[in-house]
Amino acid sequence: MAQGGVVLDKDQFNCSICLDVMKNPVTIPCGHSYCSDCIQNYWDQDDFLGVFVCPQCRQSFSPRPVLARNTMLTDVVEKFKTTTLQAASVPRDNRCLAKADDVECDVCTGRKSKAVKSCLVCLASYCDVHLQPHYESAAFKKHKLVSASKRLQETICPQHDKLLEVYCRTDSRCICYLCLTDEHKGHDTVLAEAETQHIKMQLGDMRQSSQLKIQQREKEAQDLRQAVFSLARSARAAAEESDAIFTELIRQIELKRFEVRELIKEQEKTAIGEAEQLLDQIQKEIAELKKNEAELDLLSHTDDPVQFLQSCQSVRASPALSASPLLNTNPSLSFSPVMTAVSDFKVLLQEVCQGGFVSIYEKVKDVTIVMTQNPESSESQCDSPLAGEAGAAGGAVQMESPIILPPPGLDQPAVSPLNPFFTPGPFAFSPFGSKLATGSRQRHLQRRPHSRRR
């Protein structure tokens, strides 16, 4: 706008928040102006902080400034809008010229202007200037204007050069009125506009059905994401709890190992102490017997009868030996029965652990999110409501069911049928689930026919 020698630009009156010409402009303390509603909504977002910032210079204010209408700026903006509208109503020499992809005006001479509307009656396209008669003259009131199109010739019957205003449902094509009396006589025909409205209604139903399916799938996706999140959280909790349980079990096994070691040491100390005590007693008795034997030997070599008889009076009888306890004098005496008991405990513990692991593995395998579906079940088909080519061809839309694969490692012959992630232990399982003892355990059972110690 140029008025009074001053050139004003439209951008000078734009609000920096909504990027449009200001409405009810107000000025904040830093001097910048905005639409009243724009700055109010902008500061409402920072109301909980208690600090209000200018969107342009970022100057902060606290408390919230009171906004007052800028009367002078309001008058200037109103005059700018009025002057802009007046300038827009005046024809300009610089017309909007057509570019390569634009529809050209059929009336313009020389450099063509860009067409804004096409007339189905005139079969021509017009720019803003040459379109005015269709709005102002009564002779063009019944003409039908549509958006500018380059395909106007496609709306003309190539045989009769008439407007295609009828739709033949039998042949699924648009025809003119003269075609009704010729090759399309007796066919199912309706007005093209009526058929268009009918198909649009069907498309609306298809769109609504599609939206319902989208909502259903989105809900399924949300439920699936929630299930995945819940399962992951539960898996972490189960792993931590199982670690704690197995850690406690390992601690108890270590405690029992320590107790067995101390028990063996205590029994060794007790047995050796009793044997040493008995050995001391036997050594003392041997010493007494040897002393008595020496006295008897000395007495037997005395030749004087009187001295011999006097010495016999002082000779003591042989000391009585204490009752000898039952001794286990086996030279290969050892803790072999203890080792046998420990081996039995190991075998029993392995059997219990293996059976418990089978139960745990089955329970873990049963935790799934996607259940296997029956291959015979399929999604319902969505028949196309269009009665045209899709109906004639029997077209139908089917929702593809997801292909669900079994979890990896379950159906494959892994090294261990119980756990594909670990190598088999000292026990294997037959296909029928019975335990097969190893050769070492069979030899051990043949060596010990008696019942297992408790």
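^ that was protein a. below is b, sequence first then the tokens
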Amino acid sequence: MSQYVRQATSADLPAIMAIIDQAKQALAAEKIPQWQGAYPQASDLQADIDAHEAWLLIVDQKIAGTATLKTVPDPNYAQIYQGSWVPTPASGYTSIHRIAIAGGYHGAHLGDHFFSQLFTLSYQQGFREVRIDTHASNQRMQHIITKAGFDYRGIVYMANDPADQRLAYQIKL
């Protein structure tokens, strides 16, 4: 089985949206409120593509996963509660958002490979730290995140909304 990552293009948007929609359905089935509104929508994903921050996991020539790798500080991470970030190097950090694996690949442990590739991309761009967050109810993602080597650091709020709390994680490369 061949596996690699590549940057997404606008032509990939329908496939990315299909994976995001599958993820939304899986979260809904588990009664996890994350991604149950309009977010993320096609315009969010197109903006990631336009910024060259959208990445795809390719397995046997098929799109099996999608993720956004941001290279600018995330304003949602500026304030952390009930914990703290390990001090960030001058080079800053990358953050992983909107990561999802296509439904037909669940259980294949592709998340492990995808995270490894995103770490490599971060490192190649000069970053030595990666951050990520997930909903407190999303036990599966918490497991995948910690399995990838991230350490739990505290709580962050999306857009300073006290109703939109996330668990925040960090890894040093």
